[in-house]
Amino acid sequence: MKTTYRFEIYPNQHQSTEMSLSEMKMTEWFFKYCNIKFDKLFKVNYFLLESNEPIAGIDDFAKTILTDSVTEVLFSSESKNMDLVSYLAKRGFTEPVLCDISFKPGVTDNSAHAVLEAFKLIPDLKKYELNVASGECYFMQSADSLTDQAFEKVSYEKIANQLLQKVTIQRREALATNLRMQAPKIIEVVSTPDESTTIDLNIDNSSLLKLNTDNCWALSLDEIHFVREYFKTLDRSPTDVEMEIIAQSWSEHCKHKIFASHIEYSEGELPSHMKKLGNFEVKSLFKTYIRGATEKIKADRNLQWLISIFHDNAGIVRFDKNVDVCIKVETHNSPSALDPYGGALTGILGVNRDILGCGQGAKPIANTNVFCLAEDSFFKENNIKLHPKLKNPDRIAEGVHLGVQDGGNKSGVPTVNGAFVFDKDYVGKPLVFCGTIGVLPQTEHNSSTAEKRQQPGDYIVMSGGKIGKDGIHGATFSSMELNENAPASVVQIGDPITQKRLGDFLIEARKLNLFSSVTDNGAGGLSSSVGEMAGLTNGAIVDLERAPTKYPGLSPFELMVSESQERMTFSVPKEKIHQFLQLSEKRSVLSSVIGEFTNQGQLLVRYNGKVVADLNLHFLHESLRPMQLKAHIDQTSVEQSKKSHWLNGKVKDASASKDAKAQLLELMASPNVRSHEHLVRRYDHEVKAATLVKPFTGSEKIGRHAPTDAGVIWLYPHGGERDNAISVSCGIAPQISQHDAYEMAVWALDEAVRNSVCVGADPAEMVLIDNYCWPDPITSTKNPDGAHKLAQLVRASKAIYDLSVDYGMPFVSGKDSMKNDFMADDVKISVQPTLLVTAMGRVRSLNHITTSEAKTAGDLVYMIGPDQLTDFKKQLGLYKQLHQAISKGFVNSAHDVSEGGLAVSLTEKIMSTTLGLEIETNLDLFKESAGRIVVTINPNQQKEFTSLFATDCTFLGKVTDKAQLTIKNQFSVSNTETLAAYRIKSAGAI
Amino acid sequence: MSKKVQALILTGDGINCENETALAFSEHGCETKIMHVQDLIDQPGLLNQFQILALPGGFSFGDEIGSGQILALKLKYSLGVALTEFINKKKLIIGICNGFQVLVRLGLLPKPFTERQMTLSHNRQGHFINKWVNLTVPKSNCIWTKSLQGKEIALPIRHGEGKITFAGDQATQHNTFQSLVNNGQIALSYTEDVNGSYQQIAGVTDPTGCILGLMPHPEAATSNWLLPDGTAKKTGQAFGQHFFINAIKHCEEML
Fold first, then answer.
1. Non-local CB neighbours of B103 within 8 Å, separated by 6+ positions
2. Structural domain tally of chain A?
């Protein structure tokens, strides 16, 4: 007889009955954001265990597994061994209310998976068929008399996600009788699969568009017509599975149609500060400006170290004699808007899989992450009421931060670099950028590891997680603006432990030469991974019923396009399949043969023997014609874009001018300058023991609170040369987009580069990654200013082409996300055009490593860089000269000048040390412009240092042993004051 | 050529720090083998050939239920006999961070084969912390800290559950602590309160000094280049390496 037990885990009688710090923080949160005062809040975890028959002595087993005998006790539905009401009374509860939070059926439940595995370790329990679900009990008490509905609502504000979880409220009577313990039950997914059907496209346009919306295809009418014409030539209608595969493959997310489109760019009269580019046509932004720049640089500089660029999951470069390095940066914006934690977690795990699926499989060694977020306080201060469909931006911030923390920490990959960018326009869609660097041997088994080598006849093997309904239509969904009807199934939750096992297994199998190729299952699921891999052999046959599922009831199309996480697709030569599957089982990784690669030119998909898709690969991948788009910008469109801003006129003007010292202190505490140390220190930034420059620096005495410019990763622990490292840094400046997208892109690229130069990377060996996050640039009735946004896209792309070519730094990988708009009722919130540039450079010797903080009193302070960055070639010259100075050992510290200008940069150099600066300058202390770096040098080397620079090397003053910043004839401010302003949010929170 | 000391470093199931832990040993002339937990379970006899066993840091089983809990159960049920034999032979064991949590939950620290008196619970702050901390190394039986005893050292911590907590009421807790002090079993202490740990304990050794469990990461402080600021890289000391040097030296003398 099926039996289900419920086990709750409580602190034992020796533990404190006071609220924990996290519980206290949570009550503060509820008060701040919901205006509800909980005087008590207490959280415990519980598990449901389902067995095919009753288990004798289950409480003892459960105690062993679920509790820590030193601090915890078990409350069991079997023995009902506890009087909950008097237990809660000891914690001060008089009127406890329970918010019981459980997962909705089918949602990934990581705790339950782990606990199930733990139960299965016990020899006596091996004979039972077990299932586990996890949940949380929040006992709360408030003097405000709240209804059950109010408790439920407030739970969804903070402790539960309505898309994933269910909240049940219980009060005193139910608690006294332990109602929840009486008939516990794990809710199963109930779903009936749909047979695969054919879809008649010979219907009128409005019916086609309805079909398109109902199925979440996100195709354009032209594209549907194109499909219709194609199937006419085949004399049949497409199946639902075929339409789904086509929709996934042609989604903006997978195909990058906007970057591939033909664009006619025109300019009218422009504001005087904007660079005139003229009128021209671009055949493809990607081919012209991104790959175009790389190809030109590769030829101009005769570069030999670009190993694999643009065609794989990540770009591979050779910055070491022994190993190659690969890098990829992704965005995960739409999922993070719906479920911030899950979205960011799957973002980081997803980009890790890009690295695992790069070449023959690389090992992730470092993560980066950049968040673009809004702040609730901004809207409060300006009395702006947000649309009810918008999540509290602070909650989004908490969620995405925790997601990246868990994703990186649990995978054992250090988060070495990143940024927090705050702007009100990210309230509609937060931007979550996740990057990963990997290493792989240059050759293994006598072949290059950069190549994919699948052959016709190789098995298609899916490894890792099982398939569920989670993440269906992720790729097409991210190509749509966010609206109120977004399907719940688009949310995916990551499972770090499954992925960790999968990753470890993959590297082990690669070393044993057990597969011929691998790629990740990301957006588009099997449709995209098998579809792409089949391109190389020219065909594949997939038998969908062989793919393992989380629960029964998945339709064939769901199996094909589900984006359930933690899956990789391998091609395994037939003679190696036995060994591959054996190792997989030993490593607790689920692997299933689901088909085989062919050379017949078709992607053939069957379900229980019946053909459900038979698509020509050429049609699928090569036939789509580029879109024809128009981009236009002029004085009027620039003004119009400001006028049509959703907050136009609603934001209070900035306060009146202050003296320089007050201005500096205010800047230090402002959202885009102030410290995020309390958040960053929750990321493990030095696991793998190779992080040479960490996110913070400073002196031991003051604590290390000052920001560094870039992460530096030692290659030696990863199989590289002993005296070799790489830097990773980023640049981003969305606040400049309204001014000019060209200038914004110049800033982003240069900032990434100068950050890496600061830490000692060689500008001659540096590569770039571009990540665009744009508001919809295609004109439509809902989006009248598409042409203007497209013009901004062209200008930004032209800028990074111009700058990268002059710097001689190639792009090796990149990604774009093109629909970062929120729309509901008549509110439309678009992100500012945002470009993140990530730079990865080679640090040729550990002796070149330079950190940002001032080191020695008496050192001299110089600023390197022009007043305005206009001559890109000359700027590269400056970076080379500075690098020479660094490699000769002249430079004791280097720090870039960015937000807040020179004043902030100087402050950051000393605020976390016992040293000071005495500066004499006529420069505008607060001017923000690209291309500048402040250095301190040993006075004995002054002559040699300055002789390296022909121009743009400005003496500013010297380092003193008095802990304050003094700007002669202007002001003086102590480090204590500046550091306190800078740490306004982080002090006391670490 | 003389025989080299052999160290076994466990990996798998979410262990993350196997490579740097192996490197910390091999940089000082020790032979290392990184082995998947499952492979050792399949052939427990392999443990015999090693003088040192390392349980590295990580997030075994995703830290679900309690960090180290499920890996400890796995080792207990599948390798209990082999581990007991290893310990009885006075061979060396180190558990770092998650490895420490595993040793504690296995009941091997503070004293093997006795009722559990100690655990590692959530940090006072309720979250994960990565920072460098200063530590004192008290005089103790610990073989791993031998050359460091009496010194103040710096190592990074990277954990969310590092608060040492003792069983029973306050008096019992105090007695347990006092007996650890008296037995020379406190191997490391933080110089300030970093996570709410009882009396700022950071590391504990068993009565023989062969088994060390510690929350800070010595394997991440093995080179000056890894030190946390520019000045430290030039003038600081990478104290972490001495844990490994001490253990290898001890085993060499035993070989």
1. B55, B68, B72, B93, B95, B109, B211, B213
2. 2
Q: Is residue A69 part of a domain?
A: yes
- Binning chain A into helix, strand and coil, the percentages to the nearest 5 are 35, 25, 40
| Domain extents in chain B | 6-254
What's the predicted TM-score (pTM) here?
A: 0.95
Residues 689-708 of A with CB under 8 A from B: 689-692, 694, 696-700, 704
Residue A484: pLDDT above 70?
no
Quick one: DSSP state of residue A712? E
Mean pLDDT check: name the lowest of A106-120, A281-295, A488-502, B236-250.
A488-502
Q: What angle do CA A172, A176, A180 make, to 5 degrees?
A: 95
Phi, psi of A939 (to 5 degrees): -60, -30
Contacts of B121 in chain A (CB under 8 A): 68, 71
Whether residue A477 lies inside any domain: the answer is no
- Domain endpoint, select from A181, A201, A221: A181
DSSP string computed for A486-547: --GGG-----HHHHHHHHHHHHHHHHTT--SEEEE--TTHHHHHHHHHHHHHT-EEEEGGGS
Considering A128, A162, A181, which residue would you say is the last residue of a domain?
A181
Strands (E) located in chain B: 6-11, 31-36, 52-55, 92-96, 118-121, 129-136, 152-159, 163-166, 186-190, 201-205, 211-214
Query: What does the alpha-carbon distance between residue B17 and residue A62 come to, in Å, rounded to a whole number?
Result: 30
- CA angle (A890, A894, A896) in 5-degree steps: 150
Q: What is the pLDDT of residues A410-455, one digit of tens each?
A: 999 999 999 999 999 999 999 999 999 999 999 999 999 999 999 9
Please tell me which residue of chain B has the smallest CA distance to A23: B126
Q: Give every CB contact of residue A867 below 8 A, 6+ residues apart in sequence.
A: A929
User: What ranges make up the beta strands (E) of A27-176?
Assistant: 38-51, 72-76, 97-103, 130-142, 165-170
What is the CATH number for A99? 3.30.1280.10
The ipTM value here is 0.97
Nearest-by-CA chain B residue for A135:
B65
The answer to whether A245 and A603 have CB atoms below 8 angstroms apart is yes
Q: How far is B249 from chain A (nearest CA, A)?
A: 23
H/E run at residue B113: none
Q: What is the pLDDT of residue A486?
A: 44
Whether the pLDDT of residue B1 is over 50: the answer is no
Q: Does residue A705 fall inside a structural domain?
A: no
Helix (H) / strand (E) containing A843: strand A834-843
- Residue A108: the pLDDT is 86
**Each residue of B84-137: pLDDT tens digit?**
999 999 999 999 999 999 999 999 999 998 999 999 999 999 999 999 999 999
Chain B residue numbers with beta carbons less than 8 Å from the beta carbon of A690 are: 20
**Per-residue pLDDT at A487:** 46
Give me the CATH topology for the region B6-254: Rossmann fold (3.40.50)
Q: If contacts are CB pairs under 8 Å, which of residues 4-33 in chain A contact chain B?
A: 14, 20-22, 25
Instruction: Give the one of A69, A110, A118 whose C-beta lies nearest to B70's C-beta.
Output: A118
Question: Dmax over Cα atoms in chain B, in whole Å?
Answer: 55
Domain range enclosing A860: 852-990
Q: Per-residue confidence at A477, pLDDT binned at 50, 70, 90? A: low
* Of A147-151, A622-626, B115-119, B122-126, minimum mean pLDDT range: A622-626
Does the CB of A500 have a partner CB in chain B at under 8 Å? yes
Write the CATH number for A937. Answer: 3.90.650.10
Average pLDDT over residues A688-699: 97
A360 reaches B (C-beta below 8 A)? no
Query: For this structure, is B127 an active site residue?
Result: no
Q: A761: closest CA among A696, A708, A834? A: A708
Q: Per the domain annotation, does A329 fall within a domain?
A: no
